[in-house]
Design brief:
about 35% helix; about 170 residues; 8-stranded mixed beta sheet; 4 helices; about 35% strand
Amino acid sequence: MNIVSIILGLGVGEVLVLTAEVPADESFLRVLYADVRNEEVQRFGWGDGQVQAFLAMQFDMQRRAYRMQYPEAEYRTVRDAGQPIGRIVTVKQPHAIALVDLSLLAACRNRGIGTKLLLRLQQEAADCGKPIQLKVLHTNPARRLYERLGFRTSETSQMYDVMQWHPVTQ
């Protein structure tokens, strides 16, 4: 999809807009990354300076790794009422669509936004007859959402599961 924005209706008066990630989004993406990892990193018992330095380093490493591993990826910022609230990174591969990252600010979780984004991706995958594949940490609460939407574990490692969703074929 090479369009700049994708608009998704959530309900009456609620609209999400997905925009292509631009350099001006970087400060928000850093905040989002820290928000997603905050609970985990707080358990380390570090001071604020150590936490901030660690999260900045991890963000930079993840960003470089994604760009190297997935040069064809679509990086989209999720906006609600014009404000950035999350991101979604996908890659159209020859035999599947890879969901590389779906992150939402903590304040925006459990409101149906992740479900709406995944349903849109499932429709896109069904339209082109491809499965969706993703990796998820064993401890990630999003697993329940993936399972509820029909994703099934296809491989397991020490930390991650590979999950797939296949469109219904008729």
